[in-house]
Amino acid sequence: MRSDEYFRQLWDGKRNSGVDRLFMALLTLPSLLYALTLRLRGAAYKAGLFRSFHLTKPVVSVGNLTLGGTGKTPMVLYLAGWFMERGKRVAVLSRGYGGSQQGKLRIVSDGSTILLTPEEAGDEPYLLASSVPGLSVVIGADRYQAGLLALEQLDPDIFILDDGFQHLRLKRDLNLLLLDCGNPFGNGRTLPAGTLREPVTAVERADLVIFTRCNEIIPPQVTAKACCSASHRLTVAIPLSGGAPLPFHALEGLRGLAFAGIAQPSSFFESLKGEGLNPVATLAFPDHCNYGESDIAALRRLKETCRADYLITTEKDAVKLATYRERLGTVYAAGLELRFADAGPLTSALEKLL
Asked: Could you give the dihedral angle defined by the CA atoms of residues 130, 132, 136 and 139, in that order, rounded to the nearest 10 degrees?
């Protein structure tokens, strides 16, 4: 079992042997120390002991409190589309996690040309750049410096700070916090004893809380902050070989193999079933998996073993598979759409920025 799978099961309470409970107890102290460190860091920024910097154009931050899986990328795509429909030039500031240029100051897209590969930029920045024509994307460990580079070379009207809730060095004009509707705070513990990236009290920094994955689930009453609820739905199967997207029912009667290298692959597999697809096999890879020869070989072996007619994966994974497309055969990316039950509070907040 991979280490990330083990920790997920441990945090979810699915591993309860004596050794597991002992290990969890040993994680408690570092978890408390980590939480204390984050509290002190937040207090230092609030008191001005650590400096935060303003950009000259509005900044909308999208972030979460837990490790992955809340739908930040669909939210960034939604915001980018919303602003660009209103004639605004948008630049996304991202860390570039998982790419070979991670931490370095690089322009992924200048709005007309994509300048880095998925392997260089990371899957999420590349997906953002390739999904929205005209969108600028800049990566860098210091998002303030990334913003200055964008102001100098790209002249945006507005910034979207991707995965920015914990990046306190850059001030934001609207702070959006995404929480999973069914499991907003995991087991309630910070790393390494839980999935929280900082204590629950950090919710108070948010201007608006957006509950995601609310498919037929009523958001829990965990905050007095203004809230919206949204759901994610898979929409179409996009052929990696090119051509028009297909409705999922076009794949009925065929044997599919589903795979994903995201924070919660099981949620992707369940979503496929919800759209009428029942993969004959599934394969989970580590989050932000950079597919290599061994991974492709594993997919090909499983495809042959289960006699699959096609493979289907997420859009994040698909951007890293171009060089392997012919060896894998027929591969689809499942398009993902963000839908709001009531976007009123978010729309109002965005309009104020304009």
From this structure: -50
